[in-house]
Amino acid sequence: MSEMANGSRLPRAVEGEENDQQDIWIFGYGSLVWKADFPFEEKRTGYIKGFLRRFYQNSIDHRGTQERPGRVVTLIHSEDPESKVWGMGYRIGASEKRKVLKHLDHREKNGYDRHIVKFYPYPPSTEQLNDPQPILLYVATQDNPSFAGPNDSLEEIATQILDSVGQSGRNPEYVYKLAEAMRQLYPGERDDHLFELEQLLLKRDPLANVARKPDPQTDGDTNRSEVSKEG
Questions:
Q1: Which end of the chain is more exposed for a tag (fewer CB within 10 A), N or C?
Q2: pLDDT given at position 104
Q3: Coil, strand, or helix at residue 100?
Q4: What is the fold, at CATH topology level, of the domain defined by 24-204?
Q5: What would you measure as the largest C-alpha separation in the chain, in angstroms?
Q6: Strand, helix or coil at 71?
Q7: What is the C-alpha to C-alpha distance for residues 204 and 163, in angstroms, rounded to an integer?
């Protein structure tokens, strides 16, 4: 088995990808927390360790344009190896694996690489796995052209987000939906970077209280397998 090291970059041929009989797990920590635009067998709440979720990646397609890039999340290493990023694990069936990975490689083409880490399912379930699992995730490389980095303040990030719209909708909606998902799925868990950014946007966004529209085509896990479990 490949070594599971936090943040170690993997080649495009992920372990198990060549085995058509082996399922694979994929970790969502951004929009994949509340929607999945690929088929899966089950999804499971939980977390990974040793990372921080940050709005350090420009979006020139989904939540912005080349002229007005938006901001979306990526992961950076934490100095605390026990630091948690809460998200959603999706088990992809062996028969769908190659197609889903090809889809995600295209979706995350704007500067993301595959990594493999340990996923800790939580809370415990009597119907689903509870043991840590190797899981695949996509992390923005710091040398990619769209990596914005840590130099901007939250105020500056909020200003950029307020004026950005992409093919998946308004950039502020991305922040609101992610923050709402974190509160609903993991009550009591803190993500100060996300929640403080949300509050800055709510104070300045004239459309913050307007009824929110679903994301185009993908909101609500429309492509989810009928036999999936909510986890």
A1: N
A2: 84
A3: helix
A4: Hypothetical upf0131 protein ytfp (3.10.490)
A5: 51
A6: strand
A7: 11
The 3-state secondary structure of the chain reads CCCCCCCCECCCCCCCCCCCCCCEEEEECCHHHCCCCCCCCEEEEEEEECEEEEEEEEECCCCCCCCCCEEEEEEEECCCCCCEEEEEEEEECHHHHHHHHHHHHHHCCCCEEEEEEEEEECCCCCCCCCCCEEEEEEEECCCCCCECCCCCCHHHHHHHHHCCEECCEEHHHHHHHHHHHHHHHCCCCCCHHHHHHHHHHHHHCCCCCCCCCCCCCCCCCCCCCCCCCCC
Sorted by sequence, the CB contacts under 8 Å of residue 217 that are 6+ apart come out as 37
Q: Where are the domains of the chain?
A: 24-204
Is 127 an active-site residue? no
What is the per-residue pLDDT across 124-171, written as a single tens digit (0 to 9) for each?
A: 888 888 899 999 999 988 888 899 999 999 999 999 999 999 999 999
Residue identified by tokens 């950014």 is 197
- Give me the pLDDT at residue 107, please: 64
Please state, in angstroms and rounded to a whole number, the distance separating the CA atoms of residues 71 and 117: 24
What's the token pair of residue 185?
């799925």
Residue whose token pair is 């929640």: 195
Residue 71's nearest CA partner among 157, 156, 140 is 157
15, 67, 108, 173: the catalytic one is: 108
Structure tokens at 60: 């020139």
pTM here is 0.81
Q: Coil, helix or strand for 58?
A: strand
Residue 172 CA, distance from chain mean position: 16
pLDDT of residue 179: 97
